[in-house]
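=== RUN LOG ===
request id: a7f3
mode: sequence -> structure
chains: 1
length: 371
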Amino acid sequence: MAFEVLLVAMIAAFWVGALPFGYWAARLRGIDIRKVGSGNIGATNVFRVLGAKTGITVLVLDALKGFLPTWVALRAGADDVSAILVGVAAILGHTFSPLVGFKGGKGVATGLGALLAASPLTVAVAFPVWLITFLLTRWVSLGSVLAAAAVPVAAYFWGHSLPAVGILAGAAAVVIWKHRSNLWRIVNGVEPKLQLRNTRPNLEQECLKLAQSAVERMVLDGTRIEPELKHLPNALREPGSVFVALYQGDQLRGLMGSLQAQQPTRAHEIIYHATRAALLDPYHPPIDASELPTLKYVVYLVESYEPLTNLDQVDPRQDGLLVEWQGKGSVLAPPAPNCSPQDQIHYALTRSGAPRDGQPTVYRVRLNRLG
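=== RESULT ===
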C-alpha cells in the first residue's frame, strides 16, 4: 500500500474511531455518561449506567469502528503492518476522540474489532485471557489489561512480522495506560466488579444508612466512618458526585455536595458531604446531638448537569439548580415539586447571595433522589 494511501486510510480510521457511540447513547436518555459511573464513554460504563441492552449495543458499535477500517484496508491489498496501523488509528480515535474533548474510551472494544479483521488467531488467544480473568475476578478492567498484554505475544507466535508485533505492543501499552486508574483502584480494593445480576443490597437503603451513620458518628464523637465497599452496591463503589440533604419535618436543615467528585467513590462522597451538611452548611447552625433522632436524610446522585439557558429546561420535580457567581458555587437548591421554575431559580439565587444583575451562571442538575 502506497504511503499516501495508507496515510489517508489512517486518517479516515481515526475519525471513524472517534465516533462516541457510548456518549451519544447516553445523551439519548438525557445523561452525560462522562458525569456518571466511572465517567468513561466505553461499553462497560454504559452497561453499568444504562443496562445490558444499551451496553451490548455500544460494545458492538465500538468494535465495528475498529473492524471495518481494518477490513477495508486488507481488502485493498494492505499487508499486516499497514492493516494493523489502520486499526491502531481507529483505536487512537476512540481513546482520544476530538468529539468529546480528547477524552474517549479505553480502546478495548475497538481494538478487538481491529484484531478480528487483522489477526483473528490473536483474538483466539487474547479473548480467553480476558474471559477467564473476568469470570474469576469480575473485573472487566483487569481482564482487559491482561488481554492487551497477551496480544503482542500471541501475534509473535502466530508469525506476524516484528514491525507488526511492535505496533501491537505500542497499542497494548496505550490500552494499559488508559486503565491506570482502574489498576490503582484494584490495588486499593475499590475497583467495582461487574455484576450480571443484581446481587447487591438496596441502593437507597445503603445511601441513607451511610448518610445517617456518618452524621451520627461525627456529631457524637467527632470521627468519620469508613465505608465497607465490598458490601455496597456497585453504584457506591464507583466515583461520582452527590448532594446530601438533612430535613427536620419539611424544613431543610443542611445541604452540601458538589458537581465534581471529590472522593474516590460515591460512598466516600456521601460520608463527606453528609458530615459537612450537618456541621458546615453556612445557612444553618450545626446539628446538635439532641436533634439526631428528628432528622430525615435525602441523598441525591448527580446524573448530569449543564448551564441553564432557558426556563423550559427546568423540571422542578426532578431538577436541582446550582448558582455559580464570582468563581464560587452556591449550595444546591434541591428539586421543589410544588414550585414553578421561576420560584426555584429565585430561591437558588437567594441562597447564593448573587444579585440578579450580577449575571451568575445557573446550572440545571439532573438528580436521582434517594430517600
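=== NOTES ===
The longest strand covers residues 295-307.
Residues 203-370 form a domain with the Glycoprotein, Type 4 Pilin fold (CATH 3.30.700.20).
=== END ===
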